[in-house]
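Hi W., the 2,6-diaminopimelic acid complex you wanted:
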Amino acid sequence: MTARAQFAKMNGLGNEIIVADMRGRADRITPEAAIALDRDPATKFDQIMAIHAPKTSGTEAYIEIINSDGTQAQACGNGMRCVVQAMSAETGKRAFTFETIAGILTAHEHPDGQISVDMGMPRFDWQDIPLAEAFHDTRRIELQIGPIDAPVLHSPSVASMGNPHAIFWVDQDVWTYELERFGPLLENHPIFPERANISIAHVTSRHAITLRTWERGAGLTRACGSAACAAAVSAVRTGRAERTVTVTVPGGPLLIEWLENDHVVMTGPAEWEFSGTFDPQTGAWQRDDTAPSQGAA
Ligand SMILES: N[C@H](CCC[C@H](N)C(=O)O)C(=O)O
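Structure:
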């Protein structure tokens, strides 16, 4: 058995996150461990944010992002806020520079506890999303689901926030759509060679969007920060909204600002739930404050 690693179960607006401290270790969290942790109701998560020692000077840490199906993701805005809260509690620092598979990003904690993450620049070229075929205008691509002559969802905007997103615009309450049914079909549609995060968006004013997301590799979530960013920039590109917008996801509101320098900044909360230790090989875990019988160990 491998030595245990420390973790904190946290959430970002209900996006279920495990922040795992993998610094000073040579091993990685296996897909089997991720799947085992997700199967246990107490540690069920959408993403694991694995903190590794920095690879690049000037960065605090290298963050690996793992979906609940064990696959890797390039971006996780809500998870990044959880990492900031955990590391600011540990170090007393408020501003951080991190590296992920998608590059370098910065984040800081405000005095009121809200956390802003610079999610970088969105990309809109079809090759960057990526799409399987050329679409020169990604504000609206040909893709629909439901009866051919009366599609339920159609013509999404697509964008990359490091990870692939499709945003379907709707004119009514986002809860009236069966996202749990259409999500998996669209996530795995052949137009998305790396699959995609699927959102339905209702623009309710020039500064407000309501959003639900089916996440690639994780399914229905209460919040998806990168999808909120993708929806906000896509709403601006299609003339639906201004560059500062509140995106309300099932877990609550996120403030998204698309700055003049093309960076997208997301601001929202993070919440600690409990801490423990786990085996990165198997996912066996134990709460810090309970007797050794707890968990799958
Ligand atoms: N929950 C995340 C996104 C997870 C990304 C993931 N599902 C993927 O791209 O594979 C967020 O807050 O941005």
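The chain has four helices and 20 strands.

W.
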